[in-house]
Amino acid sequence: SPEDVAAVVADAEAAGLRARVIDVGYASHNPQIDALHDLLTERLADIRPTPTDIAFYSTVTAERLADTTALDTAYWITNLRQPVRFAETVEALLADGYRLFIEASPHPVLNLGIQETIERAGVAATTVPTLRRDHGGRTQLTHAAAQAFAAGADIDWRRWFPADPTPRTVDLPTYAFQRKQYWVEPPAAVAPGAGGHDPVEARVWQAIEELDIDALASSLEIEGQAETVGALEPALPVLSAWRRRHREQSTVDSWRYHVTWKQLPDTAAPELGGSWLLLVPAAHTDHPAVLATAQTLAAHGGEVRSHVLDARAAERGALAQELRSLMGDEQHAGIVNLLALDEEPHPEHPAVPAGLAATTALVQALGDNGTDVVLRTLTQGAVSTGAADALTRPVQAQVWGLGRVAALEYPRLWGGLVDLPARIDHQSLNRLAAALAPAPAARDEDQIAIRPSGIHARRLAHAPATPRNSGVSWQPRGTTLITGGTGGIGAVLARWLAREGAPHLLLTSRRGPDAPGAQELAAELRGLGTAVTLTACDVSDPRQLRDLLDGTPPEHPLTAVIHAAGMTDLTSIADLTTARLDDVLGSKSDAARNLHELTRDMDLTAFVMFSSGAGVWGSGQQGAYGAANHFLDALADHRRSQGLPATSIAWGPWAEAGMSADPESLSYFKRFGLLPIGPDLCVKALHQAVGAGDATLTVANFDWATFTPTFTAQRPSPFLDDLPENRREAEQRGSAAETGAFREELA
């Protein structure tokens, strides 16, 4: 009944899900159609299908229909009654070689599903919508035709352009293109209060923001027009607020970055001659990744020397001596480290995976020995290259966080990270050989994922701007748990949630109600109408966390988790102990794992983790911190692959709040090209990221002219190569060098 449908919609909306009623008298593709069978047979009796030369694929059978005269009355009734096998049909089209999909509709509704199917199939194909909502007409259709043409469609342009003058195609120039790239300069950032480069426009907006009607009338040259000026004055507050929101949103959008994976062209499998040392964890000697790596090295000319290590007992000094005896004076082509495969907890330091502890000891030992042989570290399932590529091993991802710091602290030793696919086939072995080969075969890439679709290299890119007026938002309901809730960032989040109408906040930290300022914060939040519970809890202890969650009031069930707890650490890998790793990982990654495992069966609308840029790009003296924070990003991807909510934001330094908000720390970050970001805009970025469904996001204010040369001073980083700001800086440096050389030649 309509009442039943309305009740379902209401339940969905109460759970934070989008739902709407479709105004139809029946539901397609289910048993309700059976009652309409006779009526449909009568109404569709006049259908007379005819043959066609155009290939016709049916979403009823998920295959090509050889004879379209079968599209009779019975077929269309079946079409309305049975499930729509859309994904299977697209897979059939891909299998038959189709690579261009054009959706002819007022607004694309199938494109996303087609793209997801294409990604799962691991093939290169293109989708093109003809029109978009609010973007129709000839311009949009021209754009669609151009997209289709660029993707290989054979378009008869004579039907598109006017007959007079007669359109014609021309050959490209016969001389070679010089391939000089001209990057479009982005618009310069607008200073607060300014309206752009036009000084008159700037004065107009300044007057609006200051609510100065006289200055606005002067700028608009309407001083004597009292009626016009009077009509404008009531609009000033609205315009001023719009201007402020627009500027804030533009600022937030400029801080949004995300990690992408760039597919590299396949190359011929290289020769891997010489002696290769393969370090294998004792608990995984028959692991498919171990066997595949040994097979790859041997098949491409390498002499493989496998050495088994007990990752759970690896100790720096003993390992250094063991490696000296093992390697002797023999020249080695490379060292391949597979110790990260051991994910079991270290026997004495349970927050630390054995593979991470052993890899740390390995880097230290090789550094102590002065080894000049390149070390490459392999994982399997530790990264996700896209929505269709599930991250299955977040524990191994911690080695990636450590490795990015090793690249900075041991630039000559560190050869990079390679993540293997779940299923390793012959093509994967060839790609692994290319990844292990020294440059130029490996293209200087040091963060690589091998997948059935090819070799993918890790890149930082600008994240898409937050859609304006998207209508997507996250509203706190029930109980929101904030770990680190009595700290600086926790207090900022608690005040924001209280202003957003959160019914109940559960603020936890090591000291809970005894933390400095905790009682004052709770009183302030209650004054805003929010119930508050302050609790001391070590979230890295699963028993304490379980007791905390069991105590959630039934009238306010837990619906959201924000994990903002953690500890900063400035320890170089050379000085890093397993005990120190345990401290840092316990408060950050171990706590996140406990939160994940103990809430995975709860009906959460948000699961937010506060990560750090140190885990995204790597920062000197932050090996433990980088490992801990990168685990949060990996856990977010892992949760998403399981259909669970998750958002991990890797922050740059916060101003006024957080562990790095003191003047000395902010000055340190500024010297490296990382500028502080204000808490209010951080909260805005967080709210939008959760509402938009971002799984992982980096929010940071970079001064690229300072950050990039500082970050790459010891070692080039392809990770930053695709950012327009860095390409522009590189071209300017190259142009300056060419000018200097030319001047010297003239002199």
Terminal residue distance: 91 Å
What is the global morphology? globular
Could you tell me the strand content as a percent range? 15-25%
Query: Which class of the largest domain in CATH terms?
Result: Alpha Beta
Q: Estimate the helix proportion, in percent.
A: 25-40%
* CATH homologous superfamily label of the largest domain: NAD(P)-binding Rossmann-like Domain
CATH architecture heading of the largest domain: 3-Layer(aba) Sandwich
Q: Mean pLDDT, rounded to whole units? A: 88
Number of domains: 5
Description:
The protein is α/β, with parallel strands linked by helices and 747 residues long. The protein folds into five domains: 2-159, Malonyl-Coenzyme A Acyl Carrier Protein, domain 2 (3-Layer(aba) Sandwich); 199-254, no CATH class; 265-462, Rossmann fold, CATH 3.40.50.11460; 479-705, Rossmann fold (3-Layer(aba) Sandwich), CATH 3.40.50.720; 717-747. Helices cover 40% and strands 15% of the residues. The strands form four sheets. A 15-stranded mixed sheet has the order 7-6-8-9-10-11-12-5-20-18-17-16-13-14-15, sandwiched between helices. Strands 1-2 form a two-stranded antiparallel ribbon. The chain has a two-stranded parallel sheet with strand order 3-4. The longest helix has 23 residues, at 724-746.
